[in-house]
Design a protein that fits this description.
The chain has eight helices and nine strands. The protein has two domains: 2-172, no CATH class; 192-252, no CATH class. The protein is globular. Helix content is 36%, strand content 14%. The N and C termini lie far apart (66 Å). Helix 7 crosses helix 8 (199-218). The protein has a five-stranded mixed beta sheet with strand order 1-2-3-4-5, with helices on both faces. By secondary structure, the chain is of the alpha/beta class. Helix 2 (24-37) links the parallel strand 1 (14-16) and strand 2.
Length: 266
């Protein structure tokens, strides 16, 4: 599509659609675009926000095979808010863009640009949970009678390599944190582009990466960095003597989405 052709050069961190995707071919096309601009060559990580005002349509979209294995798509649904799809997507995008901490979840964030849907259009909590389990980020009317995000998840449900069910990258925070870590480490490495590919230089680069990861551990973006520091390696590539292969364990901090409570009655 011409629009995506224009987007390729800059990548864009957040791409917002003003209407649902109803065709699997269009869905596949967008997944291909996201994979390309977010590749290790292009390095312009992007996420896509697709708005829905019908939970069944959103469920059908999230069930497309390519969509189910993509952690860069937010299929956000505010059931019953027909005609407000552009505002829905824009409100979610603005909420994401305004948050500096990539690990902080978006539960309860208000979307003041949206109307309060009629009571007959509101879903039960059970139906909302079913939609969340189907890979749909849900918006609902909160206790204060204002539209708010229930939980901002991606459509990721299936590991694309194994084909097995997987929730490792479920919340959109996974995409945001991985983008943050990549950009931080790339910027640190790019600050000194003139390095010899020697053992000493590789040790120096490893120390730089470890230092950055430790800072992200302190900021509660990554965790267990000290415990897994031996897994952080920078070695000369076996395929190209001018390249190094760096492996960086990234245990990303999850949001507190569920609070299980037991009442012990005496």
């Amino acid at each position: 599509m011409p629009i995506k052709t224009n987007l390729v050069a800059s990548g864009h961190s957040i791409i917002v659609l003003d209407a649902p995707i109803s065709s699997e071919a269009d869905a596949n096309d967008w997944v291909e675009h996201l994979d390309f601009v977010s590749s290790k060559t292009e390095q312009k990580d992007a996420i896509l926000i697709v708005p829905f005002t019908d939970v069944d349509e959103a469920t059908a979209f999230a069930a497309y095979p390519a969509v189910k294995s993509c952690y860069r798509i937010v299929a956000v649904c505010y059931h019953g808010a027909v005609g407000f799809e552009p505002e829905l997507a824009a409100g979610v995008a603005a909420t994401i863009a305004s948050e500096a901490d990539p690990a902080l979840p978006f539960n309860g964030c208000k979307l003041p640009n949206l109307p309060v849907v009629d009571g007959s259009s509101r879903l039960t909590k059970t139906r909302i949970e079913q939609a969340l389990h189907a890979g749909i980020a849900m918006v609902d009317v909160g206790h204060d009678n204002k539209p708010e995000i229930v939980r901002l998840i991606s459509t990721y449900q299936i590991n694309p390599v194994t084909g097995q069910a997987d929730d490792l990258l479920l919340d959109i925070n996974a995409a945001l944190i991985l983008r943050y870590v990549r950009r931080d480490l790339r910027a640190a490495a790019a600050a000194n582009p003139r390095r010899k590919n020697t053992a000493a230089a590789r040790r120096n680069l490893r120390s730089l990466f470890l230092d950055r990861c430790l800072k992200m551990n302190d900021a509660e973006i990554l965790e267990h960095v000290k415990a897994t520091k031996d897994e952080l390696t920078v070695v000369q590539s076996k395929l190209d003597k001018t390249a190094v292969d760096a492996r960086i364990p990234s245990h990303w901090v999850r949001g507190m989405h569920v609070i299980n409570t037991t009442l012990d009655v005496y």
